[in-house]
Amino acid sequence: YLEVAYLLVFGELPTGPQLERWVHDVTHHTFVHEDMKAFYRGFRHDAHPMGILLAGVGAMSTFYPHAKEIGDEEERYMAAIRLIAKMPTLAAWSYRHSLGLPYVYPDNDLDYASNFLSMLRKMTEVKYEPDPRLAKALDVLFILHADHEQNCSTSAMRAIGSSEADPYCSAAGAVSALYGPLHGGANEAVLRMLAEIGTKDKVPAFVKAVKESGGETKLMGFGHRVYKNYDPRAKVIKEMAEKVFEVTGRNPLLDIAIELERIALSDDYFVKRKLYPNVDFYSGLIYQAMKFPVDMFPVLFAIPRMSGWLAQWQEMIT
Ligand code: CMC
After folding, report:
1. Which of 103, 123, 158, 190 has the greatest number of CB atoms lying within 10 Å of its CB?
2. Is 233 near ligand 1, meaning CB less than 6 Å away?
3. In testing the pocket of ligand 1, which one of 190, 225, 270 has its CB within 8 Å of the most ligand atoms?
């Protein structure tokens, strides 16, 4: 993921030494200021992790006041490093806060995804070693969510940044935009839909109801404003889902999803309208199997999207 983040921020893939420096710099900026803990503690126990995250990102502006010098290339570099490096820390702490668990400090021996898993799950063990298959799945999901055109949160980042606000404030606005169910929340809607269908044999009746609703009811996780073909990200995620389930056990909703996809792809209504599974169709199933609560889904999206937001912001500023 960090290699992709570099590609987005700088427009080209890094050379070996460039990647080494980039990974080193990100890895060595994963800690947040200790005062951030006090700030986090002020939230209610049941505060939504996305609300905590966006406040944390905005609060970073007060810790790094020089970031407002947006014409300074070094300041822009440091802001990008800090935001990418600290997102997993802020995200994991927002999750731990909702469980009433102590916050876990970053482990800089671990790679980006593994460190995030450690900050989420570590309890009394001296060193948390995540299953490499789950870390790999998370890394792939991070890559697939890193950027996607001029969408709502990207536009928010650019709109706020255009006033020459510092990148932390702009990024807090982008996180807020992603919070909305029409943007970051479609994978949750897929899970709800699959649960509502309940069993594989009820899929044909559900598809029939969708078709007869005249556009009122939609197949969530299907269709895309740009892709009028099988979303290439969905293909990768579907394969990844099988690998994750080898570790976590099979998510029972997967069979319903596969049946839904099979029926829809052979149905004239969907074929004619070029409606195919999109990125959200399988991602929620993976997150659920990895025991992430639904409230964490947009947070998991926000972590990697930070590099995309920064790339768009950087493009606008320069
Ligand atoms: N299920 C059933 N029918 C659909 C669906 C669907 N998911 N999506 C579009 N249609 C129908 C729609 O009713 C219309 O039919 P008709 O021509 O008879 O009026 C036709 O297909 C074209 O619809 P449209 O609104 O012009 O399609 P669009 O390309 O503007 O919409 C969309 C794209 C993503 C908003 C829509 O497909 C949708 O709401 N999908 C479900 C929600 C979803 O999965 N969102 C995640 C999108 S991917 C996120 C990402 O890339 O980051």
Report:
1. 190
2. no
3. 225
Q: Which residues are catalytic?
A: 183, 224, 280
Band of residue 200 on the pLDDT scale cut at 50, 70, 90: very high
Q: Which of 1-15, 36-50, 53-67, 226-240 has the lowest mean pLDDT?
A: 226-240
Long-range contacts of 293-299 (CB under 8 A, 24+ apart): 293/98, 294/188, 294/191, 295/48, 295/49, 295/50, 295/98, 296/49, 296/95, 297/184, 297/185, 297/187, 297/188, 298/50, 298/178, 298/179, 298/184, 298/185, 299/49, 299/50, 299/53, 299/91, 299/94, 299/95
Verify whether ligand 1 is closer than 6 Å to residue 148 (CB atom): yes
pTM greater than 0.85: yes
224 lines ligand 1 (CB under 6 A): yes
